[in-house]
Amino acid sequence: MAGTVGRPRKQSPRRRGSTAREEILDASSELFTRHGFATTSTHQIAEAVGMRQASLYYHFPSKNDIFMTLLMSTIQPALDLASDLAESDESPALKLWALVAAETRILLSSNWNIGRLYQLPVLTNDEFAEYHAARAQLEGIYRDLAAQIVGEDDPRIELPFHMTLAAIEMRDNTGIAPYPLVDDALPAPSVTIADAVLDVLHADIPQRRGERTLELVSRVSAEMPTS
């Protein structure tokens, strides 16, 4: 009889996810957001998934690597969209609206409120320099788009990025996504926050903003390589 493929489990899967890697991320999301990074061990993560601790390292080299994967899952989609927006002929107002709506959509669609990870003290660790670089890049894009609307000397250009993070405080952390991703609609809070951003900048709300944003997001998703 052929042997089993991959690493053995202590018991059958108990977490959400179609792969062991996804189950590890789900368990880690719960433990990190509820108990913090420092007090969560790889042993606890493995136990929550139902696998041997040694098997966890087959999928992730370290706890830091799991943490970084979760962090980047909230940043990278927005950076990918921003890159596509930069090549489009859309107005700065629509580009900014779409970026806000798309990033809040990601923050609101996860089972656990992983946006909370941004607030953990461990992020001062130099091992997370890649995340800080990505976040600084994204903040710069928000700032540049706002500056195209109100001018570089206007202090309001700092607001859109931080207003976007309000989505973290507008959702729960129960393990059930408040707004699962769908192809034909944006979460109501995403629309509210994106509208508020343009209102603060005294910019007109673009026509068909939601529909056009979903078209842009769909295009970027189609262009992304599958793993």
From TrEMBL:
- What sequence ranges are listed for the domain HTH tetR-type? 18-78
The annotated region (Disordered) lies at 1-20
Q: Which UniProt keywords apply?
A: DNA-binding
Domain of life per record: Bacteria
In its UniProt record, a GO molecular function of this protein is: DNA-binding transcription factor activity
- Does the UniProt entry include the keyword Lipoprotein? no
DNA-binding interval(s): 41-60
Presence of keyword Ribonucleoprotein: no
Where does the record place Basic residues bias?
Answer: 7-18
From the Swiss-Prot or TrEMBL record, give the protein name.
HTH-type transcriptional regulator AcrR
Q: Which organism is it from?
A: Corynebacterium glaucum
